[in-house]
């Protein structure tokens, strides 16, 4: 007969074998104000550096084999199906970002040249995949099922900024965006029927109020 203690010990043993925090170690993150809504389905590497006040929904995986390769700031929200992996590269995330919901977010830095930097107050939802050597500045957004590889979005105001010209760069739609640099106040739009990327001012979608 398997007792509760034996059951939990087996779970922790499997986590340790794969480089993840035990259930107890995962819940210790709550002492820094983090919220772990379902520790049984939340897998966080022992090497990942986690800030304060983050919220982790069920089904989160944060995986790295080395220290200082995944670093999270404060006040981020990670919805279900968020997957972070850094084996060889680095992932640095600032504060007050939203990852998901609507399809999950995948962020991978899996070779020595991969360095993914995400600033503060961004939104990433709808099935986003971020790869390569990418920089997403403060307030940036990726909206839709987009594979975003070695591309940058320039910093600016968040989506709450009243003047669209002052908002950070945005990518939206469905498809692949690679080796691009999107400037503040602009949107990179890619559609399902075309691989072409259109760069439009944000005022095209959000006219300025007069």
Keywords:
6-stranded parallel β-sheet; 2 helices; 14-stranded mixed β-sheet; 10% helix; single chain; 210 residues; mainly beta
Number of separate strands: 20
Sheet bearing the most strands, described? Answer: 14 strands, mixed
- Segments where pLDDT lies below 50 for 5+ residues? none
Ends: how far apart?
A: 72 Å
Alpha-beta content class: mainly beta
Query: What do the pLDDT scores average to?
Result: 92
Strand content: 35-45%
| Inertia-based shape | elongated
- Radius of gyration from the alpha-carbon trace, in angstroms: 18 Å
One letter per element, helices H and strands E, the order comes to HHEEEEEEEEEEEEEEEEEEEE
What portion of residues is helical?
Answer: under 10%
- Helical run tally: 2
Describe the structure.
The chain is mainly beta and 210 residues long. It is 10% helix and 36% strand. The protein has helices at residues 4-17, 23-28; strands at residues 35-36, 43-44, 55-56, 61-64, 70-72, 77-78, 82-86, 90-93, 98-99, 105-109, 115-118, 123-125, 128-131, 135-136, 141-149, 152-153, 170-178, 181-182, 186-190, 197-201. The protein starts with a helix and ends in a 9-residue tail after the last strand. The mean pLDDT is 92.
Spell out the blueprint of helices and strands.
Blueprint (H helix, E strand, L loop, with lengths): L3 H14 L5 H6 L6 E2 L6 E2 L10 E2 L4 E4 L5 E3 L4 E2 L3 E5 L3 E4 L4 E2 L5 E5 L5 E4 L4 E3 L2 E4 L3 E2 L4 E9 L2 E2 L16 E9 L2 E2 L3 E5 L6 E5 L9
Parallel strand pairs: 1-3, 2-4, 3-6, 4-7, 5-8, 6-9, 7-10, 8-11, 9-12, 10-13, 11-14, 12-15, 13-15, 14-16, 15-17, 16-18, 17-19
Antiparallel strand pairs: 19-20
